Sequence to fold (440 residues):
Amino acid sequence: MTRPSYHHGDLANALTAAATQLARDGGPDAVVLREAARKVGVSATAAYRHFASHGELIHAVKHVAADRLAERMKIELARTQPLPDPGPEAVRRLRALGNGYLRFAVDEPGLFRTAFCNPAAAQVATVEIMSVEHALDMALVDPFRMLMETVEELARTGMLAPERRPWAEIFAWSAVHGLAMLLLDGPLQACSPDEREQVIARVLDGVADGLVPPSPGPRA
Amino acid sequence: MTRPSYHHGDLANALTAAATQLARDGGPDAVVLREAARKVGVSATAAYRHFASHGELIHAVKHVAADRLAERMKIELARTQPLPDPGPEAVRRLRALGNGYLRFAVDEPGLFRTAFCNPAAAQVATVEIMSVEHALDMALVDPFRMLMETVEELARTGMLAPERRPWAEIFAWSAVHGLAMLLLDGPLQACSPDEREQVIARVLDGVADGLVPPSPGPRA
DNA sequence: GGGAGGATGCTAACGCTGTCAACATCCTGC
DNA sequence: GCAGGATGTTGACAGCGTTAGCATCCTCCC
Fold:
């Protein structure tokens, strides 16, 4: 990676890309500024012309990771046929989003972990009280919006009863995110692929049942 | 913290305690071996007589954190009155466990994060395929056992239908653990205490509904 | 066209970390 | 009472994030 001129021309992006690769391979802790600079063929301090700190570099990677997560969710959304009835269609979409989320976590554990890491935990001294919307860190705004819209649709079609509406997105997100964590860093690390499929299906069932009361009789 | 004799006498425990305090204040990343040694009043390398590596020190803290989590869950279990009927009693217990789990996460974020961190992510080169039981890392075995027993009880009393039994613990754990993560590192960081109570209650409701189909009619 | 000056890169250095090797001290069992 | 293992110390190394000061290049304005 030798560059012809003294100036790189696109260092910020190149560093972000290199750092993203590091995150892919080893999660957020593997994102080391000097290594990224080395990969790009530039001195470590050159990075400081484009990122104020190590934390900012990680934050850039976090953005990339969150975008890829959103892409994966979109792909899963399009992978199965829409249903004619809006109610079941909303349920299908919710499942698809959860599926995409979990597939991304399993396929790209390093990026997934980075998307949810807390860069500069003690750096930003005084965390201002802000709305949940703003606290979303912007990076994860796309995946969250997709979830919001689907839950909203679920409520609009009547599948999600009004008394269950409050915090319904958070419940769904919690279950799916928690499973991802347990699969990646927790007690489910050593699951066989087969077991993984089962537990993913079970949790998505549980989410659906927690939002849409199951009809009487045995489930499909 | 001056000690009378050349030998400390209980360095391993002292280091673990100091490291635990660091974890309390700043999470797993704040557990730095040299700082723990400094606090105890001992040279950094003395730690290596008791811990093979930084990772092992963190692992010790992880154990402590997991134990405190289990304690908190037990406390919450005893905080409300048992119900006469075994079915509702099992449901009460499940809720209490989730509540304790989440309170601990909120009250001791540093320890909670440490309990679920992945020390020496790349250290243990070849992760042998092992049972879920063994993958549990032992540290978290107590909280998991409590959950298992309660879900088992739920099944025994018939509250949890047989077709919903498989992976039911994991579903419950996922939802609660995911919420903890979202509250600590995720988009719910900036929740007001009031909102936090609401969302905790909602997720516990969702877990219950995902396991025990709600009876028809409006919920309490 | 040719400087002025900002943008971008470099080297050197600081303090911090985990870790190792070699040495010092203490305690315990024969 | 002493040999040897257990435990603690000093010194050093490489790697990290970060800063200061210097070098190079590009752009824009006269």
Summary: Chain B touches chain A through 58 residues (CB under 8 Å). Residues 54-79 of chain B form the longest helix (26 residues). Confidence is low (pLDDT under 50) at residues 121-135 of chain B.
